[in-house]
Amino acid sequence: MDRLDNALQQSLEDIVGPAHVHRDAETLAHYGRDWTRAIEPAPVAAVLPGSIGEVQAIVRLAVDTGLAIVPSGGRTGLSAGAVAAQGELVVALDRLDHIGDFSAVDRTVRCGAGVVTARLQAFAEEQGLFYPVDFASSGSSQIGGNIATNAGGIKVIRHGMTRDWVAGLKVVTGTGELLDLNRGLIKNNAGYDLRHLMIGSEGTLGLIVEATISLREPPGDLAVMVLGAPDMPSIMRVLDAFRGELQLHAFEFFSEDALARVIEHQGLQRPFETSCPYYALLEFAGGDDATLERAMALFESGVEGGWVLDGSISQSVAQARALWRLREDISETISRWTPYKNDISTRVSDVPAFLQEVESVVNANYPDFEIIWFGHIGDGNVHLNILKPDALPMAEFQARCGEVSRWVFEIVQRYGGSVSAEHGVGLLKKDYLLYTRSAAEIEIMRQIKRVFDPAGILNPGKIFDL
Q: Which residues form the FAD-binding PCMH-type domain (predicted)?
């Protein structure tokens, strides 16, 4: 549907109130896109429900009128999973931002889909607990969107993905039915666990409206160390050595090109004077003297062995935050070059050879493209960012990067990896889904969607086409 007639607009206003139905161009552009910029948004309207009942009513109206829906959370996605480009109705869940039903015994809390990640983290801290899923967009990403994409982030090596912290879900399906899934149980083997179908489904099976989230005890004192290495195999030696002696909570890497951009544009200081091809950022438990001595001994062993060139370790919370910014500020820094992003993964042991093959293919075919590498290498997830040359038109840049992607994904397929480690498939990766999922798997996915969304109104065209 390419327009919203007066009767349909009135029906939406009757559900949520006139103040929460938006048609102006500026608001539609805001709610109709995520962090990607390759596809222009063109939603017919944006509606902000204030209750689960209102979400159900909107979905039922959409079914009756044939109006497609794009669910919208914090809009921090990187695969165009929340882009409304075909006259869809954006259902933004920002107003479902309640936090309650905290149980100190169960260590769970119930929160609306619109709760911002950082707010949940702060709530957990107020209760003397900890929500470990964390990433650079925690100040704007929302819990519903995190669950819909099974967000990962910087702590996966220790704490896992979002999936591991969802104890229960409330979901409105494509018929307007409300499902209350798992209800916070630890043990529940009574048939299929539909909760896990919804996690990572990118809004194609239902609108996540509420979640019961598990919390845990705080990790205690954490130290941060940045180490420079001469090559990728050395980075993997750092991972192997330190993981064997310390309790790692994060293990990130980035290239010199990435660091140089952050230093120049964010006004940060280098962690040490030596310029290195690659860097590893380690966060580990234990600020006591014994742990720090073990860390320093490992560092010295690396220097003696030639697989560490230089290093720096935090001496305070402020220093730890400053070191983290070297990694976390990369995405924001390079956004001005409109990077073409590939979020790929393979087994941790295969990462050095995998990266070498990918880099060789890109450099050989497009020597004028600058590559920025960074990622969560401790769990096998790396981010390949190709920066757009200023003089190259966007359409031509996207087309040439599409060629690069096919070559890259052929390597991904050969290594048994994934074309989307944590960003989802959305619109940008759906043409490449076959490099990771078989035709049989994709057909089963289609059949599952037809069960939950028989009218095909929920985020159509995302992940795959029906």
A: 39-218
